[in-house]
Write the structure tokens for this entry.
Amino acid sequence: MKIKDIYEALRADGLTNSQMEFSRIWLGRSPRYYSHLIAVDREPGLATLCGISWRLKRMRLDNYPALLDFQRQLAREIERRAITDVRRHRS
């Protein structure tokens, strides 16, 4: 799941109006964070994805069937990355 897909899904359902708002509210980062990710062709970290998932879980998604499915996809992505996102630590 790509950050662009996440942004477009939330924008399509009217849950964000701009990239800056998406960065601040949904990603919990600085207003230019999403633009930065796009510019450097990177995806957000696992903690950021968990934040999006947490925010979606706190919403009533009964009126947003596409977002309900999207939330499930995001949960699978988080599970996948939680298993494979092992970082090396300095000794």
Observations:
- The mean pLDDT is 89.
- Residues 3-83 form one domain.
- Residues 65-84 form the longest helix (20 residues).
- The chain has one domain: 3-83.
